[in-house]
Hints:
This protein has helices at 8-24, 59-76, 114-122, 133-143, 172-181, 199-207, 230-239, 248-268, 270-280, 292-298, 320-358, 367-381, and strands at 45-53, 84-92, 104-111, 153-160, 185-191, 213-216, 401-403.
Amino acid sequence: MQRTLSVSIASALFTFACTTLVAATASAQAPASATPAAIPVDRPMVELAVCLDISGSMDGLIESAKARLWSIVNDLATAKPVPQLRVALLTYGCDAYDSSTGWVVVDADLTEDLDLISQKLFSLKTNGGTEFVGRVVDKAAKSLAWSTDPNALRVIVVAGNEGADQDIEVTYQNASRASIERGIVVNSIYCGAATDPIAAAWGEVARLADGQFLCIDQTMGAVVAETPFDKQLTELSGTINSTYLACGVQGQEKWANQTVQDRNAQSLSGGVAAQRAASKGSAIYDNRAWDIVDGCAAGSMKLEEIKDEDLPEEMRGKTIEQKKSIVEAKQVERTRIQKEIQALQAQRDAYLADAARKQATTQGVALDDALKQAIRSQATKKGMQFAPVPPVRPAPASGTTATAPTTETSQSKN
Length: 414
């Protein structure tokens, strides 16, 4: 099975997620404090299940997904108040998967551990297979540990470039209807021309679940730009790791993985490493499940209840007051580094904005702008408010498809 796919589809996928979440939520940075600030319990919940087709030659999708994960986090970190973000990863269409499950695998259930999602993305390999869109949507809707919060924003994003109607056992029609019945919106991305005969089914995947459908040109590549600020941001990304206090054996593993994902980001480009640094400098990068500093701030950990053997070496054998002093010192140092990161990130954003203005063309509307307008309509239905965005050109007459500027090219299908 041969097919071509540029990183544009993944760029759309993750930008799609970004703009959905940004429009629906807001974020604030934690103020400097001598003690860990309590994390608000009324933060809006945002849950995102990303479904990637990894059949055939889908390496471009995976490579872009690795980089775009941090774009999601950074966009969220510009809103107020900071949301609780949980992300899940599902893959489908791989011959190595069990045929009885429709070649669908849940790589990671909904989690706040963004480093885990990054780890899973970097471990993905493509392999030829059959793409059951209905099966992966159904799996995401029914098997993930979605929250019971009635106000949560729940989104499934599914991407691919083959027919969405290949699954006759679990049709996409039934899967999409079942998803929206559970309060889960489905957004779909088809890599190809809107005039392609199989594009209509992809549009219906989203329409039946109150979602948005995007049809993009696979030749429109996604590049993470680099700036003069990236090196310093990457260095701060490594420095901030020393402010984390791992709890237990699992915490030690998570702390080690933090550094591994730093290296993974650096392996892609300086721009991606800088994006990850910006994420780690924001309030949304929350490791309360294993970090004692975040855990105490969230109220999910109490120093008095943590066994001595589960503490980092520097905290063992200390009095409770000494332990609190160590946690407070780590919080103060982390806040200082976060402020440095945020200041550099602001300069990086300004640099990129200036570069974009100088390179602006009149060839068409940017995909990001088209996506923002489409996705913010979903947030409006939730009663959320946000700053208006510049208008973009109208979607096709059907009203179901937002398209990026396209250049018609041939593509290989099954």
